[in-house]
Write a structure and sequence with these properties.
The protein is mostly helical and about 130 residues long. The protein is built from four helices and two strands. The longest helix is centred in the last third of the chain and has 34 residues.
């Protein structure tokens, strides 16, 4: 819907803003996939454009990203074992890479779980997914 095609949209948006103000602080006013404004709690909103500015926001996208990072961390561990056994090169780089990639995989996994919980909470409360 566009404003030109729906003259009541401005009124509905103002009503949504008033409900949002009445619900108190800590909530996020965002347009849902249905085109209407909704007031989301942070738990309902899920992964957002605030904070770490994540570009991957879907559950499947974050899960795939975390899986790729786990694979890369395992490759780093294998490189550590091989270089440690062969005695060539700085073997500690393999451990450092595994720790860094493992940490990012952990963050990605936690973000995927948070988005999964938010999606389930929105579904239970009858809210559409926000446009982020």
């Amino acid at each position: 819907m566009t404003v030109a095609k729906d003259p009541d949209r401005a009124r509905r948006d103002e009503e949504a803003r008033a409900r949002h103000r009445a619900l108190g602080g800590g909530r996020i006013l965002a347009r849902g996939r249905d085109g209407e404004l909704h007031s989301y709690s942070p738990e309902e909103y899920g992964n957002s454009t605030h904070g770490l500015e994540s570009q991957v926001r879907s559950v499947w996208g974050m899960t795939a990203l975390a899986a790729v990072l786990v694979v890369l961390a395992l490759v780093c561990l294998v490189a550590f074992v091989v270089s440690f056994g062969a005695g060539g090169g700085p073997a500690w780089l393999g451990i450092a890479g595994a720790v860094v990639l493992g940490s990012f995989a952990w963050i990605g996994g936690k973000a995927a779980m948070a988005e999964l919980r938010a999606k389930a909470l929105r579904r239970r409360r009858g809210l559409p997914d926000p446009i982020k």
